[in-house]
Design a protein that fits this description.
heterodimer; A: alpha/beta; nine-stranded mixed beta sheet; 13 helices; 13% strand; B: 9 strands; globular
Chain lengths: 384, 725
């Protein structure tokens, strides 16, 4: 992403510097406002999209994230029990942070890892990780994240009073386009929780529900408490497709879900994460194409990709429109402190350049879909 | 509908209940003998006791979230894999009671009760929940509950057409019922508009209140009623309400959890409703183990997790936790090769290895090769399914409650009756026989006078007993009414405190999410507190009543001893009086208006709420809502206690009679016989000839009662031994 938006950012910088120069000269209030606006747009466009993966316990959230990333990053497993909230972000170096209830950010060393457990919390069944040394078909964990698998402390259940967010920073291509957040449920007391700050800028959501017990009332209540705007970009993902016996049963389940939850999500899909992971090779490439096709994963991934593309495109468009209006506002002459015509022209031109860059960047945000390794999000290389 | 051909009874361990069933049969036959051998006034009481024992069966309620697999589990437990309808979507819509061990002529029949007109109307208006929201919700927005109710009414009308009004209040009886019939009455069924298949006959589940099915066999070794319920946590709110309203009183609660999401919030809420139950009456079953693939440590951890969480909710109980798979159980019962082949896999291998019923390599090898040890595989499926373990656990729990609440007290009472009768007759025989046949011949008229004199004394004693019992009745009833009144006041006081506090919170926080979560937390605490207080109070009341009962007993014993001083241990009241079972506190867990989403949402949206009027209205609503729960609970307690007192006094009366009436009757006969002999009874020889028949009768009666007294003692011992296993 960095290399694509570099020209965009360069143009923003140029625009901002020119505005600041003008402001220093003229003290025009509108220009002052414009500087802040441009900064805000710059910042807004820098941040990648954010996807929240939610659902009740053991609904497949961690497995889903591992599948999207094509490697085992987050501990997942049959009886993984309760875990902390996770945020996965892009960064050049791997790092682990914990965000405390007051918003403080602490980098974890192995000593700190050991100290992170919440004393007195109920003991969870611990973390059971799917990777199995004897089964070569499953993706292997990253070496630099091996320590995550030894994170029993961090994985202790989170009580809302001591809400912890764990930030995992990875140099992973998927994360350049979209951050992933895994969380069990909306906290009871949003005003007090640090997660409120984290929840607001969520762009898309995936709610995981088990096929054998899909969409219970508690799930409905939790989902309803989230902002309604989220529903336009939310996918209800029915997991454990392998537990559904016949196509007729699947149709019945979908009918009921459409009736009970159709208005709360933009689409409903079914997937078998277990089979999806089984169809992958150690390096995260699809080894068994026939199996992969039957899991429902390809449809889900391309649906997700399309949604993210649309979201990003809309973001870019809105930013461009905003800048255009801003530009128009500045070029209109102000009787109190008129701008010299040449300056106004220079500013206008820089605006146009930024807008052009935005539109160019938007078109190539995700780039053309990758073929071969069947991954719509990034190119899987055989090297790690 | 018979049990599956593949009979796994040998694998299930209902030892305790089976033996208790045998003990019960023995108790009934001994009781019949006793009934024939005692005075007719006492015989009626004995008969009633026996009827209670005979008709007793254990009620086992199967509860849990929707789609936890309750119906499948019940099918597996009863060895009838296709009995209750199951579906991928939540299916059970009606409380279904399966009766085992009843009279043979009822077997395979079913009775379906429909809602009455009033009940249907009440449901249509949303019941308690509905009226509460609609009072406040004059606005245009239809609540979700209302929408669902309208959908339900439409569906019922579509399915039943014009018959609907005439069906309400009726019931349908089937002499022999099949699974497809059950489906039409019990299962929600797909909406006709959504599937294109025509329905096979009218579908009644929307208006069916309760389904009662009578089946043959005794899967638990003792007469039982297994009650299947619709699940909780259903987005279709009406079903939720039905379950909550009908949990009532069961002896055992089988709480069905799922392996993927054991003990979620909803499960905990359900378990909390069961708080305050006397003794250990809950079994936790973690179902659907077949879907997750784990290893030994996972299963250990899962069990430990559930056990730990249960210990926190129920610190003094020991609740067995059993991992299970109804799916495997039913596969074994079907004995269908293809079904079992599909279910074979690593999850069965891992789980079977963990439970020790087969080696993992063996299971995996069956998966690979087609040469099947068919019967052996079915056995492994059945054992791994956890069904035998569940039945054993139920058996153990039932055993204790049946023994302690039915068999032991009844055996004790009947034994006491036998003993009292024996003691009296023995004494009578000794004195009267001695007097009549002694070498110092007392004149007949004198003997007769003595007999009449004793008779009159006994009559006076009986009158005294009557008075005593009447006083005791008044005393006990007054005491319990007073105590309950105090309890009521205390509970209302607590509720008022809570209401005040909530009013203050409303004034300061207005209608906000903070208020809501604070309310929810504190109302939960209130309910727990009330439950604890209630339970403690009631236990104390029961103890008080027991003490007063003891006083009455000693009074009666003293009076009897005064009248018949020569008899040792004249009046025996048995070793074990029936104990008092407190009513369950389920009324305290009922839904109030505040538990409904809609209540809060309309107010949260409207905002505000700190005006004094608003605050007062809120407080009043809190008081009245919780006040209703308390009233209901107290009513239950009152009727339970009153019944208990009634039964206790009745017992005292007839135990007293069992000591007095035999003597009275025998003296009566003797007096009449003496009247008839007159002068011809002048020699000892002639007397013994004349009265030998009479005394022979008395002798036989004595021997019978002595034997029965020993038999009942022996039965008690047998029962206690069975429990110790």
């Amino acid at each position: 992403m960095a290399e694509r938006v570099a020209p965009l950012q360069a143009s923003f910088t140029a625009l901002r510097e020119e505005l600041e120069r003008q402001f220093a000269v003229s003290g025009n209030r509108k220009i002052f406002g414009a500087i802040r606006a441009v900064k805000a747009v710059d910042w807004h466009l820098r941040r990648p999209l954010r996807i929240a993966v939610m659902g009740e316990q053991s609904s497949g959230k961690s497995t889903l994230i591992n599948m999207l990333l094509r490697e085992s990053v987050v501990p997942a497993g049959a009886f993984a029990g309760l875990k902390a909230h996770f945020m996965l972000r892009y960064g050049a170096d791997t790092a682990l942070y914990v965000i405390g209830p007051d918003g403080s950010r602490t980098r974890l060393t192995s000593k700190a890892l050991a100290r992170i457990s919440t004393p007195g919390a109920r003991s969870a069944p611990g973390t059971n990780i799917i990777y199995n040394a004897m089964d070569p078909a499953l993706p292997r964990p990253r070496e630099d994240l091996q320590s995550l698998s030894l994170l029993p402390g961090a994985m202790r259940p989170v009580t809302d009073g001591a809400a912890k967010l764990i930030e995992i920073v990875l140099p992973h291509p998927f994360l350049q386009r979209a951050e992933l957040m895994e969380t069990r449920a909306y906290p009871q007391n949003p005003a007090k929780s640090v997660l409120r700050r984290v929840y607001r800028p969520v762009d898309a959501a995936i709610w995981c529900t088990l096929s054998t017990q899909a969409w219970k009332e508690t799930e409905r209540q939790t989902w309803r408490r989230l902002p309604a705007s989220l529903r336009q970009n939310a996918i209800l993902l029915v997991t454990y497709r392998d537990a559904i016996r016949t196509a007729q049963d699947e149709a019945k389940i979908l009918t009921r879900l459409r009736r009970d939850a159709g208005s709360l999500f933009s689409e409903i899909m079914v997937v078998s994460l277990r089979h999806a992971l089984e169809a992958m090779s150690v390096h995260g490439m699809i080894a068994d194409h026939a199996k992969w096709d039957e899991t429902g994963a390809p449809q889900f991934e391309s649906g997700l990709r399309a949604r993210l593309d649309a979201l990003q495109w809309r973001r870019f468009q809105r930013s461009a429109a905003f800048l255009r209006r801003l530009s128009g506002l500045i070029s209109r002459s102000d009787p109190n402190s008129p701008l010299p015509a040449r300056s106004a022209e220079a500013i206008h031109e820089l605006f146009e350049r930024s807008i052009g860059q935005i539109e160019a960047a938007g078109a190539v945000y995700f780039g053309p879909a990758k073929t071969g390794d069947r991954n719509p999000f990034f190119a899987v290389t055989s090297q790690r | 509908m018979t049990a599956a051909d593949h009979n796994f009874t040998s694998l299930t361990d209902a030892r305790i209940t089976t033996r208790l069933g045998e003990i019960k049969t023995r108790l009934l036959s001994l009781g019949e003998e006793l009934e024939g051998g005692v005075h007719r006034r006492v015989a009626g009481f004995v008969h009633d006791l026996l009827k209670e024992v005979e008709g007793h069966s254990c009620r086992i309620a199967v509860i849990g979230q929707i789609k936890a697999g309750k119906s499948s589990l019940v099918n597996a437990l009863t060895q009838r894999p296709d009995l209750l309808p199951t579906d991928v979507n939540p299916s059970t819509a009606v409380i279904t009671k399966l009766y085992f061990g009843g009279p043979a002529e009822k077997n395979n029949s079913a009775l379906f009760h429909f809602f009455s007109d009033e009940e249907w109307e009440r449901i249509m208006t949303g019941g308690r929940a509905g009226t509460m929201t609609m009072q406040r919700n004059a606005a245009v927005n239809r609540t979700r509950l209302q929408e669902q109710l309208e959908g339900l009414r439409d569906r019922a009308e579509t399915r039943l057409g014009r018959q609907l009004p005439s069906l309400l209040g009726k019931h349908h009886l089937f002499k022999s019922v099949t699974s497809s019939v059950l489906e039409r009455y019990v299962s929600a069924g797909d909406n006709a508009s959504e599937t294109n298949e025509p329905e096979p006959g009218p579908h009644f589940s929307d208006i069916t209140k309760i389904a009662e099915v009578y089946l043959e066999g005794q899967p638990l070794g003792y007469p039982a009623v297994i009650i299947d319920t619709p699940g909780v946590n259903d987005p279709f709110l009406v079903r939720d309400e039905i379950t909550h309203g009908n949990l009532g009183d069961a002896d055992i609660y089988l709480v069905v959890l799922t392996a993927q999401q054991p003990l979620s919030k909803s499960d905990l809420a359900l378990l909390r409703m069961l708080r305050g139950l006397q003794k250990d009456r809950i079994i936790a079953v973690v179902n659907r183990v077949d879907i997750v693939e784990g290893e030994a440590e996972d299963y250990d951890r899962l069990t430990a997790f559930v056990q730990e969480a249960l210990r926190q909710e129920f610190p003094h109980a020991s609740i067995p936790v059993i991992l299970a798979s109804a799916c495997w159980g039913n596969a074994a019962l079907h004995a269908d090769k293809e079904e079992m082949a599909a279910a074979l896999g690593p999850s069965l291998a891992a789980f079977a290895a963990w439970t020790g019923c087969a080696k993992a390599e063996d299971v995996l090898s069956w998966d690979r090769d087609r040469n099947w040890p068919h019967a052996r595989i079915a056995k492994v499926f059945y054992k791994a399914s956890g069904v035998p373990a569940i039945i054993a656990a139920i058996s153990r729990l039932i055993g204790h409650s049946v023994a302690e609440e039915r068999i032991l007290p009844t055996a004790s009472t009947l034994g006491a009756i036998a003993e009292n009768t024996a003691t009296s007759v023995r004494h009578n025989l000794k004195t009267m026989q001695g007097k009549v046949q002694s070498p110092a011949l007392q004149p007949v008229p004198l003997l007769r006078d003595q007999a009449m004199h004793t008779l009159r004394q006994l009559e006076r004693l009986l009158a005294h007993i009557e008075d005593s019992l009447r006083l005791a009745d008044q005393d006990l009833n007054t005491a319990l009414t007073e105590e309950l009144h105090r309890l009521g006041k205390y509970m209302v006081f607590r509720t008022d405190q809570f209401a005040e506090h909530q009013g203050e919170l409303l004034a300061s926080l207005t209608y906000s999410p903070e208020l809501r979560s604070a309310f929810q937390e504190e109302s939960f605490q209130l309910r727990s507190q009330l439950a604890e207080d209630f339970y403690k109070y009631i236990t104390d009341i029961a103890k008080l009543l027991m003490a007063k009962q003891r006083d009455a007993e000693s009074d009666l014993r003293q009076a009897t001893k005064d009248t018949l001083p020569e008899i040792d241990n004249v009046l025996h009241f048995g070793f074990q009086a029936p104990s008092f079972a407190p009513p369950s506190i389920i009324p305290l867990s009922k839904t109030t208006a505040f538990d409904l989403e809609d209540f809060w949402e309309t107010r949260l949206e409207a905002g505000g709420g700190s005006a004094p009027d608003e605050v007062n209205a809120f407080r009043d609503l809190v008081r009245s809502e919780f006040g209703d729960l308390i009233d209901e609970l107290l009513k239950l307690a009152e009727s339970a206690l009153k019944d208990h007192v009634l039964a206790a006094l009745r017992r005292l009366r007839f135990l007293s009679y069992s000591a007095i009436y035999p003597i009275a009757q025998q003296l009566q006969h003797l007096a009449e016989a003496l009247q008839k002999t007159g002068a011809s009874g002048d020699t000892a020889q002639r007397r013994s000839h004349l009265f030998s028949g009479l005394f022979q009768e008395w002798e036989e009666s004595l021997q019978q009662c002595e034997k029965l007294a020993l038999d009942f003692k022996d039965l008690r011992r047998q029962c206690i031994n069975t429990l110790d296993q």
